[in-house]
Design a protein that fits this description.
D-Maltodextrin-Binding Protein, domain 2; 18 helices; about 400 residues; alpha/beta; 6-stranded mixed β-sheet
């Protein structure tokens, strides 16, 4: 994709908007039903984008964890856009995906896609990156900032950051005149964000790793704030699976979740090795990223942390957050808070369904946590992931 072709990204958004309607999803859902009937024992087929959000799915495949559970898994399918991920999933071409958590809300309640969140894929793992000359969020006024998608935690967090600094998020065509207190939000593919920042087409972007780390590596941007330092231990991407599999193949579904949870535990203990296997130098070449870029994200670096504290990218040092971390339990309080915040977030396209969506209902209906609860207990409880035991928490959102 040409970095200057913002219309390409918009076409992709419009395609996804069409897919996520009842009429648009119907042909794909018919295809899903046909596939399920013809192949009732289909293997694990993962669809993913080349971002660190996909880490547990790719580690589970690389390390043979699905096979260790007694189920077959094909090579994960690298997809280039969220529209491709959704299309492949709804039609049944893939049956396990990582998806932006707000996008699962849109899929289930905007177009009635019969699928549920079964686990969190990771926490944190995103940041707001700005041009090197920008040192305060207020300096983004009158400029454009890229987001990966309207239905994303990135969009929720950046809009709150902007409003807290006296700025107004808007959605206008690229190149439109902006007031001094307006910030134009543009949907842009993550891979196009660093080049767009370097060419000064945008003043910043908020996105999943490793594209914040890539801007640092290329010296075209600096991290202004990590999203995990705004919303503590927030989910970004979650594991999404078809209800048909969850209901008709519960043993298979349990084994899928088992493998993903065990991959998360392995990654927590083997961060440098995980960075290598995910990189372009790894045996499976899952992503096009260099090992040193992924190291910035996955491997703790005390010197870098001190610099982030000095620069203000980390303002809640007592939270002791990793740049990206992994724990699978989908806390209901997060889903409830997410729904509440989405209602007050600028989102291009149809968001009418959000008005009547009850947060507590969504937390119960969107998520099927029976599989993840079982495997968490088997691997030692939430304390195995560095968390206190108990499946409830209080959301901490602090600017």
């Amino acid at each position: 994709m040409c970095l200057d072709d913002f219309t390409h990204t918009r076409r992709d958004f419009l395609k996804l908007s069409a897919l996520l309607t009842a009429a648009g999803a119907l042909p794909l859902l018919n295809s899903l039903q046909a596939r399920a009937a013809s192949e009732p024992d289909s293997p694990v087929r993962i669809g993913y984008l080349p971002i660190t959000d996909a880490t547990p799915l790719l580690v589970a495949h690389n390390n043979g964890l699905f096979e260790a559970e007694g189920i077959k898994a094909e090579r994960p399918v690298l997809l280039r856009s969220w529209a491709q991920v959704i299309e492949a999933f709804i039609s049944g071409q893939v049956n396990v995906i990582h998806l932006l958590s707000p996008m699962t809300v849109w899929a289930r309640y905007g177009s009635k896609v019969p699928a549920k969140v079964v686990a969190w894929n990771h926490v944190g793992g995103s940041g707001l990156t700005v041009a090197p000359n920008i040192t305060e969020v207020k300096q983004l006024g009158g400029q454009s900032v890229a987001i990966p998608f309207w239905y994303s935690v990135h969009n929720v967090v950046v809009q709150q950051l902007l409003r807290d600094n006296g700025l107004v998020p808007v959605s206008k065509p690229a190149g439109s005149a902006l007031a001094a207190n307006e910030v134009n939000l543009l949907v842009l593919a993550p891979s196009d964000m660093p080049p767009a920042l370097a060419s000064k087409r945008i003043a910043g972007y908020i996105v999943a790793e490793p594209f914040n780390a890539l801007a640092e590596e290329l010296k075209v941007g600096r991290v202004q704030r990590f999203t995990g330092d705004v919303w503590r231990n927030h989910a970004c991407c979650v594991v999404f699976m078809h209800e048909q599999d969850l209901n008709d193949r519960p043993e298979w579904s349990q084994k899928v979740v088992n493998a993903i949870v065990k991959a998360q535990l392995w990654t927590r203990d083997n961060r440098a090795e995980a960075a290598k296997l995910l990189s372009k130098d790894g045996a499976n070449r899952y992503t096009p990223h260099a090992p040193q870029v992924l190291d910035r994200v996955l491997v703790a670096n005390s010197a870098a942390r001190e610099q982030y504290l000095a620069d203000g990218a980390i303002q809640h040092s007592h939270w002791d957050e990793q740049r990206i971390d992994f724990q699978p339990y989908p806390f209901p309080s997060y889903t409830e808070e997410l729904i509440k915040r989405l209602k007050d977030t600028l989102i291009e396209g149809d968001k009418g369904f959000l008005a009547s969506l009850d947060p507590q209902f969504a937390a119960r209906d969107l998520v099927d946590d029976r599989f993840v609860r079982k495997v968490i207990e088997e691997v030692g409880g939430l304390k195995a992931f560095g968390l206190p035991d108990g499946f409830e928490r209080r959301e901490e959102f602090s600017l």
